């Protein structure tokens, strides 16, 4: 059942109007708590859909007519991070290592119990039908993938300092949990921190940075001005792209920084000279020399690699001891599901036809954090995945709030965000899955709105060549 903040589905692709309902109509180093206070002054009563907003000095800036991918007029956020933090009840910031660890134990018990039941009872002696055993082991992989993703999310809490008041305790728990899932804990923690500090900034964000118009044109071998004339992509192409994204997107990101920014030459220590995203580009999460990090953090990258080494050694031992075909079903099938959910969740938190991106000149922390969206995945999302899907907007403003307080904190910030709070909760879990296809079809590259003024040229929206939403800009070059 859709919540009060669900959005209506567009009726016609070409000229659709989307209503993003919101509260105004209804109701540590690794975290964003150290966020820069570079956000406009609060002036909610003087801002309208004409895209007038205040800059950092409080001066009014006319962005022209900004139009998102649904064809709705867009307003640049003008509240402050202080407004957000002041609205959240103080107890929401409280963290309990006992409560947090209880969820770790719960998820481990679910993993162990499921393995015990399948290993002992889904056998040829008890279930003679091979076809039925295959189906049941497929169910095992799906269920273990959800439980494993739950542990992934708890390690993510550790990385943000939301797990307990002790950062050392957080790092020990996070390192163990993430290493067991073949995730380089400290390496990811640092790059993920940079993602939070630059969300929506096309030159600094670290994940799911969309292509610009020129980059998209280069990718498909056409000039930028031809994009408005190109015909529709085939659905089979979209499907293949999504399949590749879901199967290998996460390891590809760790190995090559795919979907991250590619401005490594700007790395302040010069570590990015001659390096670029892609295989052989020297940008990854495993090399202490990677431009994703500073020299002082090299030992943390090594610690992450050691954690992976221990986990891989354990897997090799188990494979040799019990057989690699067994290990493939016991561990690697759930592992693929964990990666799938991780990529799907992150993709849909930052990719939606209603969301903007910003150039470096127009970006600030408040605007970037508002360029995220909450979704709904029912019981699985709220209980097995610890609410990471349903409370992501709040998470980008204050990442140290533990997940079990995030719902209350989310409700508290909705009145401050007003129309800028976005949530697509229609159809619940089914809607979440459908959103993957919709976002892949609607969100192909970003460009300014046709009616944007000089300042508005730095506020970019998704466009596509599938005839969905506003047509791409027509340019002469």
Largest sheet: 3 strands, antiparallel
Task: State which percent range the strand residues make up.
Answer: 5-15%
CA(first)-CA(last) distance: 48 Å
- Overall number of strands: 9
Question: What's the number of helices?
Answer: 14
Main β-sheet, spatial strand arrangement: 4-9-7
Instruction: List SSEs in N-to-C order.
Output: EEEHHHHHHHHHEHEHHHEHEEE
Protein structure class: mainly alpha
Kindly state the mean pLDDT as a whole number?
Answer: 88
Residue share in helix: 40-55%
Q: What's the Cα radius of gyration?
A: 23 Å
The geometry reads as globular
InterPro entries: FA_desaturase_dom (IPR005804), FAS_N (IPR021863), Fatty_acid_desaturase (IPR012171)
GO molecular function, one term: oxidoreductase activity, acting on paired donors, with oxidation of a pair of donors resulting in the reduction of molecular oxygen to two molecules of water
Pfam families: DUF3474, FA_desaturase
Subcellular location: Membrane
How would you describe the overall organization of this protein?
Residues 1-54 are annotated as: Disordered. Residues 19-38 have a biased composition (Polar residues). This protein is mainly alpha-helical. It contains 14 helices and nine strands. Helix content is 45%, strand content 5%. A hairpin with a 5-residue loop joins strand 1 (52-54) and strand 2 (60-62).
């Amino acid at each position: 059942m859709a919540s009060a903040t669900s959005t209506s589905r567009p009726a016609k692709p070409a000229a659709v109007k989307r209503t993003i309902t919101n509260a105004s109509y209804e109701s540590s180093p690794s975290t964003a708590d150290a966020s820069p206070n570079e956000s406009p002054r609060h002036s909610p009563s003087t801002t309208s859909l004409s895209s007038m907003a205040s800059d950092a000095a409080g001066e009014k800036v006319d962005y022209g007519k900004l139009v998102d991918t649904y064809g709705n007029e867009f307003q640049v956020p003008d509240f402050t991070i202080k407004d957000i933090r002041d609205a959240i009840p103080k107890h929401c910031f409280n963290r309990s290592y006992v409560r947090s660890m209880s969820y770790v134990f719960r998820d481990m018990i679910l993993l162990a119990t499921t393995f015990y039941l399948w290993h002992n009872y889904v056998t040829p002696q008890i279930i003679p039908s091979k076809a039925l055993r295959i189906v049941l082991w497929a169910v095992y992989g799906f269920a273990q993938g959800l439980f494993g993703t739950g542990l992934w999310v708890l390690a993510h809490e550790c990385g943000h300092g939301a797990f307990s008041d002790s950062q050392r305790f957080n790092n020990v728990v996070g390192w163990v949990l993430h290493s067991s899932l073949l995730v380089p804990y400290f390496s990811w923690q640092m790059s993920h921190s940079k993602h939070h500090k630059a969300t929506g900034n096309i030159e600094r964000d670290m994940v799911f940075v969309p292509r610009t118009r020129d980059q998209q044109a280069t990718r498909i071998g056409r000039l930028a001005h031809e994009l408005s004339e190109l015909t529709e992509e085939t659905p089979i192409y979209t499907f293949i792209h999504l399949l590749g994204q879901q199967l290998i997107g996460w390891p590809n990101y760790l190995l090559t920084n795919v979907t991250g920014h590619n401005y490594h030459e700007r790395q302040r220590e010069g570590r990015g000279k001659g390096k670029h995203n892609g295989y052989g580009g020297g940008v990854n999460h495993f090399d202490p020399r990677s431009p994703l990090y500073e020299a002082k953090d090299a030992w943390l990258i090594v610690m992450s690699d050691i954690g992976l080494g221990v986990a891989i050694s354990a897997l090799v031992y188990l494979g040799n001891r019990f057989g690699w075909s067994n290990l493939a079903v016991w561990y690697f099938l759930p592992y693929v599901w964990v990666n799938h959910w991780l990529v799907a969740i992150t993709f849909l938190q930052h990719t939606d036809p209603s969301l903007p991106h910003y150039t470096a000149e127009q970006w600030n922390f408040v605007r970037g954090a508002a360029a995220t969206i909450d979704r709904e995945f029912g019981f699985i999302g709220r209980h097995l995945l610890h609410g990471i899907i349903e409370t992501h907007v709040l998470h980008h403003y204050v990442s140290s709030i533990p997940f079990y307080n995030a719902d209350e904190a989310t409700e508290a910030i909705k009145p401050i965000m007003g129309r800028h709070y976005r949530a697509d909760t229609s159809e619940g879990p089914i809607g979440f899955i459908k959103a993957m296809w919709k976002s892949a079809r609607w969100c192909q590259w970003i460009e300014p709105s046709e009616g944007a003024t000089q300042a508005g040229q730095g506020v970019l929206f998704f466009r596509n060549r599938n005839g969905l939403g506003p047509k791409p800009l027509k340019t002469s070059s």
